[in-house]
Write a structure and sequence with these properties.
Elements: E1 7-11, H1 13-22, H2 29-38, E2 43-47, H3 57-69, E3 74-78, H4 82-91, E4 95-98, H5 118-130, E5 134-139, H6 143-151, E6 156-160, H7 162-166, H8 173-188, E7 192-196, H9 201-207, E8 213-218, H10 220-229, H11 231-247, H12 251-258
Parallel strand pairs: 1-2, 1-8, 2-3, 3-4, 4-5, 5-6, 6-7, 7-8
Helix pairs in contact: 2-3, 6-8, 9-11, 10-11
The chain binds 1-deoxy-D-xylulose-5-phosphate and the ligand NCC(=O)COP(=O)(O)O.
Amino acid sequence: MKRPPVRLGVNIDHVATVRNARGGVHPDPVRAAEAAIGAGADGITAHLREDRRHITDADIEALTALCQQFERPLNFEMAVTEEMLAIALRHKPHAACLVPERREEVTTEGGLAVAGHEARIAPVVKALSDAGIRVSLFIEPSAEQVEAAAAVGAQVVEFHTGRYCHLPYGERSAEFDRLAAAAAQADILGLEVHAGHGLDYDTAAEVLAIPEIQELNIGHFLIGEAVFVGLGAAIWRMREAMKEAVHGPREDDALVVDL
Ligand SMILES: CC(=O)[C@@H](O)[C@H](O)COP(=O)(O)O
Ligand SMILES: NCC(=O)COP(=O)(O)O
């Protein structure tokens, strides 16, 4: 069976990181989201951290409206807290991705511990699902976490690819196998498979060798790359890398090689 196109969700958190460094309004992550949609992003991802270090409540309100206007899904990343649940239920984004948060961390260091915390997580998954919000769990690619994600009623798992991306090229095969095994297991359990964190052009293409992956969420690299080539060009190049990873090189590229 032909593999459907893999979706690219663009995370615009770090546009807000730059904005907040000066406490003003520029650069605006909502404008970045509009530019990302214009450049071919299939959806927008934003993480409203409890400490509001990048995305703010007002950003989420404006991003919800923007995504509705352009009919693109908003993937709202949130910690498993009463406060975040109330915000998600107020805005009703297309999807909510439950992520772990530690106030002192520089970035999201690992996946959400679902196994062992089912009693706390299942009611949040249910409340979101009952409101028509698609629930994704940002987890480590482990059999235990995948099983727990299915047990609490999630529809989607997003595998944390940070560990994979940090390994030097040539030393990634064991982590790749871990991702591939978890993706196969998730698919068997009826979970849609996404991946994200730390991906760049190369690692995004590499993980797409895993056939169950249907969506990548990428932020930090694209926003960083935008400094050099512009956001539109970075997104275009990422989409080309993803297409080539899934469908092989374009025919005109093959011709150039043959000549
Ligand atoms: C959960 C996740 O991986 C994203 O939200 C992304 O990495 C955002 O950046 P920070 O983790 O640096 O806040
Ligand atoms: N869930 C991962 C995400 O949205 C983007 O992570 P990163 O590319 O900013 O590391």
